[in-house]
Design goal:
two-stranded antiparallel sheet; mainly alpha; about 140 residues; 5 helices; 2 strands; globular
Amino acid sequence: MNASLPEFRRLPYPLASLVHFVIFAVVFMLFFGRKPGVFRQDFITSLAPDFYSHVSNLSISYILYATAGYVCLLAGAKMRLIVLIGLLLILINVTYEYLIPLLNTRDPVDAIYGVGGTLLAFIVLAGIDRFGLFDTPNGSTTT
């Protein structure tokens, strides 16, 4: 029995993949900036001194949403599903930060950063959906 992986209905243009990867890498570096070192940027702390105290929520929200959304777009999902995933992530983030103190202290600023990460990912995903993908022949790849 030869099991095969599901095939994508849409594929990204190289520039769309590059933009997705670069923004993903920047957000990941911001996450690692929580600890002093090479990834922490002084100009960010001069603008927002508490930025690195909350950046994990922004980064985690972005990484989760951008990854799930990108895969869904490649699978052929409509933006309606991407929006629903984003709204669900925002709801979970706000609920966790305001109502569930499990392993966490209530922090509205963390919720704002999480919503910001989700919104940033939505903007990137909407751009990729609109300008960065093309349909594969017959809705599937042949490789």
